[in-house]
Amino acid sequence: MSEPVLDALREKITRVDQQLIHLFAQRRSLTNEVAETKIKHHIPVRDVRREEQLLVRLIKTGQEAGLDPHYVTQLFHVIIEDSVLNQQAMLAQRANPGSALPLNRVAFLGDKGSYSYLATQKYFSRRPGEVLEIGCQSFSEIVSKVEHAEADFAVLPIENTTSGSINEVYDQLQHTQLNIIGELTHPIRHALLVSGDTQISQINTLYAHPQVFTQCSHFLAELGSVEVKTMDSTSSAMLAVSELKRDDVAAIGSEAGGKLYGLTAIKSNLANQKENHSRFIVVARDAVNVPLQVPAKTTFVMSTVQKPGALVEALLVLKENAINMTKLESRPIPGNPWEEMFYIDVEGNLSDGPLQQAIDALRKITRYLKVLGCYPSEEISPTKVAAARALTE
């Protein structure tokens, strides 16, 4: 194919892409109008049956146009998720009219390019106001920034699908008066980052955060005798490799973050689990009101009395009130050997009757209970529609 012909085809593709961008923007504008109607009539944000019907029609239309059903499904999963999250953000802003700030000062771990930095950008992209990033070197520093009004919000990683819970963050939550006001799940895609034309066989030293080394332990085993140097964040690891400018060192971090430091990815998907995600929480000094139309989560911490079956008794309270528990984490109570503090995430709004009843009942049978926050759930599970069903209906 000659260059002029190829250039002409590329120009046509560019024009189509631009049209798609304008159509996506038009669709988002329409969903915002839908959100206005839902606010007015107190209609839940998500209508799974409507989403199923929409996907069935789109899969059929796509097949008629020669498109693979899985391609259409994946594309509209992203579009539906964006629509749901934007509507939830709009409802949350209406329920908390004084929370919108012209400048959001956000503390997070590391510096530009860290996974916490990328999660911060993702979360606040749906919120009004500019973002002032405040990079910190430890979780205690992050929490302190918000407690002392040096930051308005903090973004903290709480768990990872490969390495599990981040205990240090749970310990910080036990001793702070801050409130959880939001959450998000962010994909973690580890890449091997170098500053020049480096081959894997040349690498003698590897820089990364301890959690990253845990998540990539299989890859490290394949490397063999390579010195590992732990850093306080992925951004620190990338900065170190960038400044060293040697062909025998590398960092593990995100490809997007590496580009901010002039690093190149020479190998991707390093995590033990290919579906590797981290869940982050957003904390602030003041709690937020969550509209009942928005799916909500509530996190609380409790300690039970020292008797057999005390934890089971407490969990039965959740069952009796039809409350779904999504997370149970235990941490030692400092100064009280062999006693545990239990952190619990449940689906539900603290303003709703069943959860209110459950919390009231738990207060009566536990030694200590504190609600850490009620916040919008941003874990948007994809609408599941089998391609075969879509083609036969």
Detailed description of the structure:
The protein is an alpha/beta fold and 393 residues long. The protein folds into four domains: 3-96, Chorismate mutase (Chorismate Mutase Domain, subunit A); 103-188 and 277-284, Periplasmic binding protein-like II (D-Maltodextrin-Binding Protein, domain 2), CATH 3.40.190; 191-268, D-Maltodextrin-Binding Protein, domain 2, CATH 3.40.190.10; 296-376, 2-Layer Sandwich (Alpha-Beta Plaits), CATH 3.30.70.260. 43% of the residues lie in helices and 26% in strands. It has 13 helices and 15 strands. The protein has helices at 3-41, 48-64, 69-95, 115-124, 139-147, 167-174, 210-215, 217-223, 234-244, 255-260, 310-320, 353-365, 387-392; strands at residues 103-109, 130-136, 153-160, 164-165, 179-187, 191-194, 205-208, 227-230, 249-253, 264-268, 277-284, 296-304, 325-333, 336-347, 366-376. Strands 1, 2, 3, 4, 5 and 11 form a six-stranded mixed β-sheet that branches. It has a five-stranded mixed β-sheet with strand order 8-7-9-6-10. A hairpin with a 2-residue loop joins strand 13 and strand 14 (336-347). Helix 1 (3-41) packs across helix 3 (69-95) and helix 2 packs antiparallel against helix 3 (69-95). The protein starts with a helix and ends with a helix. The mean pLDDT is 89.
Question: Which tags fit this structure?
Answer:
393 residues, alpha/beta, Chorismate Mutase Domain, subunit A, D-Maltodextrin-Binding Protein, domain 2, 4 domains, 6-stranded mixed beta sheet, 15 strands, cytoplasm, lyase, CM_P_1, multifunctional enzyme, EC 5.4.99.5
